[in-house]
Design brief:
Blueprint lengths: L14 H15 L11 H8 L3 H13 L3 E4 L3 E4 L1
Antiparallel strand pairs: 1-2
Length: 79
Protein backbone atom coordinates (compact mmCIF):
# COMPACT_ATOMS: atom_id res chain seq x y z
CA UNK A 1 0.00 0.00 0.00
CA UNK A 2 1.39 3.38 -0.96
CA UNK A 3 -0.02 6.40 0.87
CA UNK A 4 1.61 9.43 -0.64
CA UNK A 5 0.21 12.90 -0.17
CA UNK A 6 1.62 16.35 -0.88
CA UNK A 7 0.98 18.26 2.33
CA UNK A 8 1.15 22.04 2.31
CA UNK A 9 4.05 23.50 4.29
CA UNK A 10 2.50 26.98 4.10
CA UNK A 11 -0.88 25.92 5.48
CA UNK A 12 -1.88 27.07 8.97
CA UNK A 13 -3.13 23.49 9.50
CA UNK A 14 -0.43 21.42 11.24
CA UNK A 15 1.23 18.74 9.10
CA UNK A 16 0.06 15.91 11.37
CA UNK A 17 -3.55 17.06 10.88
CA UNK A 18 -3.11 17.25 7.09
CA UNK A 19 -1.75 13.69 7.07
CA UNK A 20 -4.46 12.48 9.48
CA UNK A 21 -7.13 13.98 7.22
CA UNK A 22 -5.62 12.30 4.16
CA UNK A 23 -5.54 8.86 5.80
CA UNK A 24 -9.06 9.47 7.19
CA UNK A 25 -10.35 10.20 3.66
CA UNK A 26 -8.68 7.03 2.37
CA UNK A 27 -10.28 4.92 5.09
CA UNK A 28 -13.74 6.45 4.69
CA UNK A 29 -13.61 6.18 0.88
CA UNK A 30 -12.61 2.51 1.02
CA UNK A 31 -9.13 3.04 -0.45
CA UNK A 32 -7.92 1.56 2.83
CA UNK A 33 -10.23 -1.34 3.62
CA UNK A 34 -11.61 -2.46 7.00
CA UNK A 35 -9.08 -4.77 8.64
CA UNK A 36 -6.25 -3.70 6.36
CA UNK A 37 -2.91 -3.04 8.03
CA UNK A 38 -1.32 0.32 7.34
CA UNK A 39 2.41 0.50 6.57
CA UNK A 40 4.83 0.87 9.49
CA UNK A 41 5.46 4.36 10.86
CA UNK A 42 8.89 4.50 9.25
CA UNK A 43 7.44 3.62 5.85
CA UNK A 44 4.62 6.16 6.22
CA UNK A 45 7.17 8.80 7.23
CA UNK A 46 9.11 8.12 4.04
CA UNK A 47 5.99 8.07 1.86
CA UNK A 48 4.62 11.31 3.33
CA UNK A 49 7.98 13.04 3.59
CA UNK A 50 7.37 13.73 7.27
CA UNK A 51 9.02 12.73 10.53
CA UNK A 52 8.06 9.57 12.37
CA UNK A 53 6.86 11.72 15.29
CA UNK A 54 4.48 13.54 12.93
CA UNK A 55 3.17 10.23 11.57
CA UNK A 56 2.72 8.86 15.08
CA UNK A 57 0.70 11.93 16.06
CA UNK A 58 -1.53 11.55 12.98
CA UNK A 59 -2.10 7.87 13.79
CA UNK A 60 -2.93 8.73 17.41
CA UNK A 61 -5.61 11.13 16.16
CA UNK A 62 -7.06 8.40 13.93
CA UNK A 63 -7.03 5.96 16.86
CA UNK A 64 -8.84 8.51 19.05
CA UNK A 65 -11.49 8.77 16.31
CA UNK A 66 -11.79 4.94 16.25
CA UNK A 67 -10.72 4.77 12.61
CA UNK A 68 -7.68 2.64 13.37
CA UNK A 69 -6.53 0.29 16.11
CA UNK A 70 -2.87 0.34 17.09
CA UNK A 71 -1.35 -2.84 18.52
CA UNK A 72 2.23 -3.09 19.69
CA UNK A 73 4.05 -5.72 17.65
CA UNK A 74 1.19 -5.98 15.15
CA UNK A 75 0.81 -2.51 13.69
CA UNK A 76 -1.97 -0.11 12.81
CA UNK A 77 -5.17 -1.61 11.40
CA UNK A 78 -8.10 0.23 9.80
CA UNK A 79 -11.38 -0.39 11.59
Amino acid sequence: MHLQFAWNRDSPVPVFIQIEQDIRRKILSGHIKHGERLPRETVLAEQYGASRVTIRRALEELAAANLVVRRHGIGTIAT
